[in-house]
């Protein structure tokens, strides 16, 4: 009898589970990005209704200014909604690696901060061919998986996560250790409702996305140009 792990689709299901784990970790940040402009829009509409209500002598230029502010919030909201398509496995959009890495950092930062881990801002210009367009969906998933893999290490929780562009690839590194005097994390890794992204899970996702990676004790090297 063929075991579950030997089933032809077993590795694909396993990779889908890792992708789900990555998405669940990034989802709170995405919800915040969508809710924030909506809240501003609601307040703006309330103010506008009061200003144009009968009996109010609101100058036309003030009303126009308020409408323009609302239009700006709608534009921001639309941008965040369009970013949701990046998680669709059928999307093959390509863009410079730097834009994808900046997005990964912004998505990972809130959860890591709750766990007492600081993710450093991206360095300056990427070297060599790292600015060449790459598959956004693929790089976003594997970079976030590497960040969470290192940031949630139960054996040696890091103080910082660094994203280092290199010739032909990206290096994600865990550095330092949590100070003994530091306050406990607001949300420990054990509170996550999904399984940890361990070394096997990370490798499974990399194989599925066809992205060569090299894992070290506290670092993950991601090759660019694949996918």
Description:
The chain is α+β, with helices and mostly antiparallel strands and 227 residues long. Helix content is 49%, strand content 13%. It has a five-stranded mixed beta sheet. Strands 1-3 form a two-stranded antiparallel sheet. Strand 4 (160-166) and strand 5 form a beta hairpin. The longest helix has 43 residues, at 10-52.
Q: Number of DSSP helices?
A: 5
| Count of strand segments | 7
Q: Estimate the global geometry from the Cα principal axes.
A: elongated
Biggest sheet: strands side by side, in what order? Answer: 2-4-5-7-6
Strand percentage lies at: 5-15%
How much is the radius of gyration in Å?
Answer: 21 Å
The structural class is: alpha+beta
Largest sheet: 5 strands, mixed
Uncertain runs: none
Order of helices and strands: HHEHEEHEEHEE
**CA-CA gap between termini:** 34 Å
For the residues shown, what is the average pLDDT?
Answer: 80
Helix content: 40-55%
SSE topology:
Layout: H1 10-52, H2 60-83, E1 94-96, H3 97-114, E2 118-119, E3 133-135, H4 136-151, E4 160-166, E5 169-175, H5 199-209, E6 213-215, E7 219-223
Parallel strand pairs: 2-4
Antiparallel strand pairs: 1-3, 4-5, 5-7, 6-7
Key traits:
227 residues; five-stranded mixed beta sheet; two-stranded antiparallel ribbon; elongated
Structure in a nutshell:
With 227 residues, this protein is α+β, with helices and mostly antiparallel strands. Helices cover 49% and strands 13% of the residues.
